[in-house]
Amino acid sequence: MRVLAAALCCTLAGSAGAWAQSTLGAAASTAAAGTVESGGFANRLNREQRLQDLGWRLASANAAFCRESQPSTGLQLLDTASFRRPDAIRRELGLEHSFAVLTAADGSPAEQAGLEAREPVTHINGFELESWSAVEPFAWQRAELAHDLLETMLVLHGQVTLSRPGKPDLTLKGEPACATRFELAGGDDIALADGKRVRISAGYPAFSYPQDELAAVIAHELAHNVLGHRVWLDANGRKQSNVRLTEREADRLAPWLLANAGFEPHAALRFINRWGPEHAGGLFRKRTHEGWDERAERIAAEIPLVLEAIARDGKADWSQHFQREIEP
């Protein structure tokens, strides 16, 4: 398991700050201008929930095969200090406190315990979240620390206790999941993995696709993390041929991840055939990715291997049967 206690005393990465400003800032300005239930903000919350639902489903279903897994509850917190206008977002959300539930992933311990969006959270294992100072607006660091604290308590104790105003403390037991966070990003064309996170932009075209094809996008990015591509590229360099190797592996592993999560592995093929003709062009993509039709051929060739493994073993054990193209 990945031990995360050190993260609580380390300087947070600048990428997280950029994410918070682009994602939370855009959402907050929308909410401050009108009601939370209307327009773009409600749509953004819906997409956030879908990302967390699918991310949890994929990460928990494949935990047995990930080299790095950890207990998870499927809970995502919101800190209003991260927004452009914290006071306005607190009013719009009806919050007296800064921290609240943003999402509880479908089927996760958080959802099964009855946690709902907007429900205030004041303490984690007795630690008062608002005791961290926050220089508003865009104080994204505090939300990052809260999630680090959640993960650390789960790694150390296997469970986490939440305090909520006017309610009894709630203890959630973690369930194994591949060690990745899922985050909704700003923009329209972002789908990436950084080794610890999967980030999908709120405007990404696949949000309008069938659910299993959106899951295929998330599975591709999760594949980068569980295969250790960021570490491998750091060690071996990011020349074009190396990046293409990692992209090929992610394409090929996606059907395995989908199958274990209860999706048809063919969803990965349907996604690339739908997305590719309109979005896979351009000089930059050609440098780092093969053509979408070549990608489709590789995915199609992998699917019979997935189905064979399921027929033989009752599961798609990619840790044993997936053929790597790079040395881990």
In a few lines, what is going on in this structure?
With 328 residues, this protein is an alpha+beta fold. The protein is 50% helix and 14% strand. It has twelve helices and eleven strands.
> CATH H level of the largest domain: which superfamily?
PDZ domain
**In the CATH hierarchy, what is the class of the largest domain?**
Mainly Beta
**Assembly context of the chains:** single chain
Mean pLDDT: 87
CATH architecture identity of the largest domain: Roll
Number of strands: 11
CATH topology type of the largest domain: Pdz3 Domain
SS content category: alpha+beta
Number of domains: 2
The best one-word shape is globular
Order of helices and strands: HHEEHEHEEHEEEEEEHHHHHHH
Q: Could you estimate the helical fraction of the residues in percent?
A: 40-55%
Q: What ranges have pLDDT less than 50 throughout 5 or more consecutive residues?
A: 1-39
Share in β-strands: 5-15%
The major pleated sheet works out as: 4 strands, antiparallel
User: Strands of the biggest beta sheet: in what spatial order?
Assistant: 5-4-6-7
Please tell me how large the radius of gyration is. Answer: 20 Å
- The number of helical elements comes to 12
Distance between the termini: 18 Å
